Amino acid sequence: MRIVCEENLNKKLLDLYHQLRSEHGTLKWWPADTPFEVALGAILTQATAWRNVVKAIDNLKAADTFTPEQIHAISQDELEQLLHPSGYFRMKAKKVRAFVKHIVQRPMQEMFKQDVPELREELLSIYGVGPETADSIILYAAEKPSFVVDTYTYRLLSRLGWVEGNFHYARLRALFMDNLPHDVNLFNEYHALIVRHGARVCQKTPECQACGLQSVCDYFSN
DNA sequence: AGCCAGGACTGAG
DNA sequence: CTCAGTCATGGC
Question: Which among A5, A49, A99, A189 has most CB atoms closer than 10 A?
Fold first, then answer.
């Protein structure tokens, strides 16, 4: 992946942000009540529709198995059954177990005392936590400025013609973080808007030649 | 009836 | 390091 146009990326990224906001409003993510629920959702939503994640989380709540300690106490088989509707349930159970094992020994609030680079490294060291999951936890649970990138982000920028080539997480994240103020609320809303845009608006229809959001397409087509 | 969803890990070249 | 294969359910 390479960045096509380097100049004025700062302004372009802010313009795109405001276009998305005018289209979708203010979202104030993440759909969860606690930092642990954010992390759980971040792992469960890997390559999975959010509606299926909700089913799994509801199962955990209904079984009164929703604290790190409670999840840590049950078996792999039991966890697999509860996570079943979220897909990849064997892998997800393994990942969730690795995560709770880590934070039972070292609570999230302790981890969150670190700065972003150290916190990110620690999260990445946990089995099942890759770059997007780590950044989601940092931004939406720890509330520290680490930009979250996903396939929707790549599609949008790719269709706008700002990047070319294969998806590259680190370069895409750097594109945002090197050209925007490190503001938690800005990063929060920006990623949320991109996902909302991608999931609800940007369909792969023939008429969607660019990104699918008409105002964005119109605005950046000149 | 396919196609694909807010990825990460593994092994091969 | 780059990349295909693997994991799996449920909604449209």
Answer: A99
